[in-house]
Amino acid sequence: TRPTSSRLFAVTSRSITEDELRDSFSVFGDVQGVWVVKDKQTKESKGIAYVKFAKSSQACLAMEEMHGKVLMDGTKPIKVFIAQSRSSNRHRDVEDEELTRIFVMIPKTFTEEDLKDTFKEYGEIEYCVIIKNKSTGESKGLGYVRYHKPSQAAHAIENCDKTYRAILAEPRTKTTVTEEYSGGMSRGEYMGGNDSMNQYAFPMAEPVNYQGMDYRSGDFTRCLMISTRAALSQEQIFSLFDLIPGMEYCELQRDNYGMSKGHALVRYNNLGSAVYAKEKLNGFEYPPGNRLAVNFVDDGEDRSSPVSRMAMQLVAAQMMSAVWNGPATNQVMKPHQGYSAVSNMSRVQTDVNLPPLKKLAPPDSKSKERLFVVFSPSPLPLDVLEDVFCRFGSLIEVHLVPGRKVGYMKYADKQCADEAMAVLHGRVVNGVKMKVMLADPPREESHKRPRTT
Q1: Which of 52, 74, 118, 289 is geometrically suited to a Cys-Cys bond with 33, CB 3.0 to 4.6 A?
Q2: Does residue 176 register a pLDDT over 60?
Q3: 68 burial class (0-12, 13-18, 19+ CB within 10 angstroms)?
Q4: Residue 20, phi then psi, degrees to nearest 5
Q5: Final residue in a domain of this structure, among 82, 108, 142
Q6: Number of domains in the chain
Q7: From CA 58, how far away is CA 449, in angstroms rounded?
Q8: For range 391-396, the mean pLDDT
Q9: Residue 39's Cα: distance from chain center in Å?
Q10: What is the mean pLDDT of residues 212-230?
């Protein structure tokens, strides 16, 4: 992806040429292009120019060093800003706090000292903040690092380990500070690991009033338009919308100059996933402070025939009412006449054919094998897990580890556990991806291996 903040907007004198600008700015890095804005009629310079660098850090350094400098005797000092998209009239200057503050994802064990130690190699740090859960005081695995200079923040984003997923932070003024530091799941929580699924969790199981949605309208499509004020890369949008299974296309819209327009198009291979993505991610803040807008886009499919309309309603209704770990009563919305299939839909939606339900083993059975399951983005409810894992026989119990996205499945028969692992590893159930592995056999305290992160 093209780096954000890598293009400069300079107010110069009309007498300064492209070549002179290129010479002056190329000492700070790889100048990919210089464009002097000229009057359409007279073809004379308007005293405004754009300078494009290969990296944001180079552009920021050039801005810091060149702002207020006199390029040629007898000309006024030039003004240099980071250029925003062409549709925006606002350009960011050296003083802009947005350019010095980065938002990072960190292990929940990190202290502010750890955060500072990790990021100080990129420049002098003004402050570090770890976002904590207001009620428990625990770290949410999210933090901010504020540098003194924009070039230091850009340097950190470009060079820090990719698992930190560093991006420029939005200014605090866009949300009240108390809201920013206290929000729950809605603000996104970090999961360990660097799997693309592990970027943000959103509240999978929060109650949503689906009765209020009219499934008879033809407004649903498999195509969504995402609008964002923050400069997000295609990878960031992809990894967020890829949390919902079935994404087949994701493209950031760019203008003629290759700059992001703040819009991306995402298409799913089924209507249900698109309906769910719109419902869950419209208004979702990513990163905190930047509210995404998600809307359906006409994808050109003909929905005029009664058959296609009916299929569309059925898929949307199934997704919304039965699938997403909603209340145990499957009757989330009263199906319209002719859609009675919805009411007895299974609560389990997955991309694998599951065997029929089997009885649990007696609770006092001896455990012969334990499976360790990692959930992404968030754990499934116990009853759904029991429903899925009991189908291979001999399941004794399901245990979720509080506060973590992992759980254990105990089986009375090793073969049953092995079969469950073979079938379910890497599969998605109700929008949650599962990694299913053999658990380490219980060890004596003294022999425990140190935990590796």
Answers
A1: 52
A2: no
A3: exposed
A4: -65, -40
A5: 82
A6: 4
A7: 45
A8: 94
A9: 42
A10: 67
